[in-house]
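Schema walk-through. Below, the input block comes first and the output block second. Nothing else is stored per chain. Lengths vary across the set, and this one has 265 residues.
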Amino acid sequence: MSPDATIDAPQVFVGAGARIAAGTHIVTEEFILGEGAVIGGEVVVDLAGGAHADSRLLVGPASLVGSRASINTCREVLLEAESALSPGSCLFTHSFWQSILDGYHCTFEPIRVGESAWVGAGCQVLPGVTVGAGSVVISNSTLVDDLPPECMAGGVPAKVMRRGIKRPLSPEQQLLRLKPLVQSMGETLKAKGCPVSFTLEVEETRVIQLSHSGQTWQFDCAKRTFTGDAEDRIAHEVRNLLRRQGIRFRPYAWDAGYRGPLSDA
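--- output ---
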């Protein structure tokens, strides 16, 4: 956690490899940051509207809260595993200002962002909304109603624009996508001063095997698991290159912060 980030919560759990960037301030009753999850810089989590027994922020493993996001936790906000809030997004678990005696509504309800869902930059998510697993919300949209799984939605208010955006691939189709990716990763590592040998095993396994300095690691793209010898800078960099293609591996705790050359790794 960055030295100038602050957490003000009676109950806190931060999982292995999770990170909180500079300028982020978190105030809530319960805060859980899962393994490998990341909260960007200048994020504000607050209790505007008052603390409550259900005031909490739960960020699932390998999830992302982008920089300058604002999350109100008068009620529970749950981000499931591998979900993402892009920079500048705003989540509100309360809706109040005008008096209920004048006929206005006052709402306090939780928010849920499903597994692998992605909320675009500058979006607003209003109280009680559930974003279905695997869905995508276009930037600068406002969500006032639940979204079904694996859809694309956008607008003010957001409407479903496309359904079934997740298209399962056969093992053969996955392999066709992995082959050029493996070649590109090898070229990137060489450009950083680190020649590395790759082998892509038989089609049924979709395993990327990495060898370097007598050590071997395996990235099982079917099971999304990482195994091998003691990790070094090269293994972390390959993880980072695969992450940029949306492929994340368990265990999620790893070092994604390295940005220098690899010639001495």
